[in-house]
Amino acid sequence: MTTPTRPGLELGLDGKVAVVIGTGSAIGRACVTGLARAGARVACFDSDAEAAKASAEAAQVVGPEATVHVVDVQDRAAVRAEIAKVMSSHSRIDVLVNVVGGSHWSLSAETSDEEWDLVMALNLRQQWVVAQEVLRHMIPARAGSIVAISSVSGMNSSPRHGSYGAAKAALIDLVRTLAVENGPDGIRANAIAPGTIDTPARAGDDALAAKVPLRRRGTPEDIGNAAVFLSSNAASYINGHVLVVDGGVTANHSLIDLD
Length: 259
Description:
By secondary structure, the chain is of the alpha/beta class. 40% of the residues lie in helices and 15% in strands. It has six helices and seven strands. It has a seven-stranded parallel beta sheet, with helices on both faces. β6, α6 and β7 form a beta-alpha-beta unit. α1 (26-37) packs across α6. The radius of gyration is 18 Å and the shape is globular. The protein starts with 16 loop residues before the first strand and ends in a 14-residue tail after the last strand. The model has no long low-confidence stretch (mean pLDDT 93).
């Protein structure tokens, strides 16, 4: 008797070309290795050459070739030049995952213009710039997947995090607009909204785990896995969506506490 095969989820990323922006962060590294493990050829973008190199090396341990691209994503000309290098090498870009962001903690009434502008530039403007430059190649190919890392702070109020929350909320709207505008060309755009993630940059926040229904903080791999899924054929009919990866935090009614 022949045993029926039990194929796994078909990701369809084998041989695809993925550009990951911000590969020096823990979440960026997890996105790189996740995509590489699924068979994608990853272009690792970061302003830090050593960080991008380390991510490319990690990708090559688990997957095919990976390339290093050192660029300030706030510089449109530099972004365009590095994207051109990817196209020159591979003649295609199938996936864009943009992890770059940054926050500033202060009351909204006390946030300076300079702080506001920097947070907006890191979390919103560069996402728009990079998406535009990649879309110049995805639109003629009539295919592609864009994944932007937003935050639960963009979905709920964020005390002392007002500029960051405003930027992440605007990013969600930008992603939805990209989904609607470019869907007819076969291009999907989605966002991931992480909750509290245990990264080196947020070390020492372990007390937050008690506020999470799952009673743990998320891992960079939790976000990387979500990015791989949204990038893949398994999510081929998901467009304009915000995938919340927060352990259930945003599902909780703040006025009711079982404890």
